[in-house]
Amino acid sequence: MMSEKKRMHPAAIVVAFFKQLRELLFPIIIFVFFGSSSGEGFFGIIYIAVMVLWFAGLIAIGVVSWYRFYYWIEDGELRMEYGVFVRKRRFIPQERIQTLDTSEGLVQRVFGLVKVQIETAGGGTEAEASLTAVTKEEASRLREALLYYKNKEENADVYGSKLRVQQESSVEPVEKPTYKASWKTLFIVGTTSGGIGVVLSAVIAFTSQFDQFVPYEDIINRFGMVLQTSVYLIASIVFVVLFLSWLISIVMTMFKYGNFTVVKNDDELLISRGIIEKRQLTISLKRIQAIRISQNPLRQPFGYATVFVESAGSSGGKESDFSTILFPLLKVSDVEAHLGEFVPSYMLTQSVHGLPKRSMIRYLVRLMVPAVLLSVPIAYFFQPYGYVAFLSVAIGGLLGYSQYKNAGWAVGKEQLQLSYRHLSKNTVLVRKKRIQSFELRESFFQGKRKLFTIKAAIKTGLGGKNFQVVDVEQDDGEQIYEWYSYEKKQGDVM
């Protein structure tokens, strides 16, 4: 019975222990450095005793937290009771639950368990609730109790019609649409992801924690003369560091997105991925708010793109701007066919209205003027090498022109398509009924040139997202506004 109070699997104690250990990693490492440098005898005994008590405390907290955690379903709500010193209760109505995702970390895989995350609309960057260790059978029962029957009365006719079709039809069931990313695809994803910057940042942040223990200055002074006399040595070291960071980022990407599979099951998308940590999430087609097609500067020249789903009740992840990856890598020419197969209500059109030529100067000025203002003092105070800073002006000009060329819009009977670029080119497909608000903005200088900024807002797990195109023709902006506000006569203006 789901109404009976239940505890998680005892493996939740191990999960909690490693989670706290990870959060306290830097203090523990620093303590180990101090302890190893302390003398033997009495101080050595104190050091060992503190370490033993520390780890024993982590285990004890995990055991008590597990023992005092209960969950159950009652009166159409998922209820939880938890807390070591202060008891807390949490009730989540079934109506608010949007998705129930499962994942398998190392600990869960050892015990044959899964982690369950419950997502709600407007739930923020984190899951609304989490059960860190339950059996796969229990996860299936929770999914059935919380999702499949929460709208039973509303969907009775739909279920009935499907049942009649299955009973009357003697034809074998149609194979479900499936997408599986190959290892070659994942290698290209890792190669062009730009993850090298993340790896370098992590290494720098990690090593900076030990500047009190590692004599960086002495090392630099010892090798300073060697480095000054060999430009090739400096270049080789930089190349090796960048190359190793690039390889690490590829390996991390392939481990994270290995076995990436998308299966369309009626009105749901089942997405699974991961080698070390397996994750599975379910996205209802009814909850999709928008489709975003992204091309970073490394992928666009080769005609590749990543397709994201913007969904209500899905927190996504920081690495993907809190969006859910639907297809990690596709040829742009194949995007339309894949959308038609998996999310047929969204259509990508190539007939996009660009921006007027008078908008181009504004895109150039926005990036080139700040680059000039920064380059002049650098060139003045750091001659002659400071003149290299003026390269940023040319880069700003190229990026500004690219932003101008890639910006555009298109509207159909029920869909708005917006294209824009910051560093990566993004194309957003939004159904009219999913747009929470539409805004036309006009600054003083835009008014002089008869230009508008158009902005569409949708609902996501973060509460909302905005997509905008800057410096659209004034007449075009009014046309889109009329389309959204139902003032325009019916018809397709795509």
UniProtKB/TrEMBL annotation:
Domain of life: Bacteria
Record keyword Membrane present: yes
Domain called YdbS-like PH: residue spans: 66-145, 259-336, 404-484
Residues annotated as transmembrane: 21-39, 45-70, 186-210, 230-255, 363-381, 387-404
Chain coiled-coil ranges: none
Entry annotated with the keyword DNA damage: no
Name of the protein described by the UniProt record: PH domain-containing protein
Lineage per the UniProt record: Bacteria, Bacillati, Bacillota, Bacilli, Bacillales
Keywords: Membrane, Transmembrane, Transmembrane helix
